[in-house]
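Pasting two entries for a bug report.
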Amino acid sequence: MSQIPLIDFSAFYSSDPAAKQKLVEQVRASCLYNGFFQIKNHGVPLEKQEAVMASAKKFFALDATEKQAVAKENTAWNRGYEMLRSQILEEGTQPELKEGFYIGDDISTDHPYFINKKLNSGPNQWPAALGSEFKDTTMSYYKSMVALGGDLLKVLALSLDLEEDYFVGFMDGAVATMRLLHYPPQPPDADAKLTRGIGAHTDFGAITLLLQDEVDGLQVWDKHSSTWIDVKPTKGALVVNLGNLMARWTNEMYKSNVHRVINKSGKERYSIPLFISGNPDYMVECIPVCKKPEEQAKFPPVTVQEAVSAAYAESYGRAQLYRAGLEKTDASHAGTSSTVTESSIPVAVA
């Protein structure tokens, strides 16, 4: 496979059973192969996509002080601005050359999810400089994408020969996190082995829906040919990929595939992924049809909260250890304690 399939999703909403079955079969084939495909005619208008992308660009154009006023570190529930080089998803690489802004369901501090410290659940932070339009635009897009995620899970259920509503309970009270992402252009003389926009990784949740701007950089690993496949942006289309929860759920019959971002375009790249984790208390265990009766499941049951929280902690922990190592090195060179700032972290970008 030299490219990621582009699937017409409108068949899901049609009254033509043959067209819907063709859609299900195309999705099944993609999930069995590498868990990646693109969809068009999915019901999220191009105007809404363009509006949220414009909002993302406005946010990242703010000065550092305005962005830091809504820093993710202000919360314990993963909402707000994440500065450059805060995460390492690929072991052995340097912190990633991207900055982001986390948005989720805008719940209040008296909501049970917040009170019980459920996964990524709490009020959003909003940049004062951009006013209510930024909030309205991003939340409208967020809600449309969560609804589309529910429809995608219905197609996934059908692709596994399950009832269409098999995943409805998983989506009842589902946690989904949206990230506005900005990748500065990578220096042409950077070390390709050490630095990434996002390092090679698999996603943590069930499914991811990605809106790309016109600048490419997303690459998907094709183990069959041992090559990286470039996912060229397609206007109006969304990239869909399965995460580790879905792979676990299907006993690895469906793939959670490795992907990365390397921005060698010389231009600013923007993208907006929505990560659907599901209801934090939902127990994920092997779907019976995904193994033979005499076979053991490859993974024990786990709640969404347990699985996704552990993955987040690991990736951000790598970046913290990296920074701590640099701080220790600087201190030993100077003979005194020192603080590592963002600008002091070496940049080596592919």
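Entry 2 (this is the one that rendered wrong in the viewer):
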Amino acid sequence: MKTVSFTTSQFVTIEYELASPVYRAVASFLDVIFLCIYFMIAGYFINMNLFDLDSNSMQNRLSVMTIFLVRLPWFLYSPIIEYLTNGRSLGKLIMGIRVVKSSGETAGFREYFTRWIFRVVDIWVGGFGFLALLVSGTTEKRQRIGDIMADTVVIKVKDTQMYGLKDVLSIKNSDNHVPTYPNAIRFTDEDMLLIKNTILRVQRFPNQVNKDFAIELAHETAHLMGLPETPPKKMEFLKTVLQDYVVLTR
């Protein structure tokens, strides 16, 4: 499993798994399917609007509608939708992957446009995607040529093993559990999801990056609750805060 690390403005390093070439290929295939469905709908709309027109009017309207409803969406789908959704086309959204800068920042239109321009080389000239699969499968950051030129990477942002809100709510509200930290009630469900997912990542990937993030999160949690110092057992502390929150709010 290849990963990439980003350092936040608070000097906390966060690690993400890089999207595999297979994930990226499936996402692209899904995008093609969505485009085909769109073109079928657009074709039906065009035919309905050309009904009962004379030949000259039909030709003029056909040209205009073809440009705006077919050609432009075909050419500009990728950069426009990725720009509007912060690096996620419909296919990428389903596969849980996203385009970001190599620095971890959100990419801009220039990066998305550069990636799109080099699709001609990566996909169409390079044997219908073979070159893109070959390059992304062999480079250190799993970048195709378009990614290298745009200085972007594709990361996985959806982990099938990540906990959701239902997992937080499913923690047993034990009658004999006495909350250790009553101030845990000040947090939100989103805060608890962050704690829960951090615990999970440390358990699954006990590398130094994830441990350092958990320690930083424990310090910040203790600070927000007004504790004079962070308990020495950081992971146990985070688990206790999570349990206390559920017992106090449910």
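Dev reply: Rendering is fixed now. As a check, the viewer should reflect this: The chain is about 60% helix and 10% strand.
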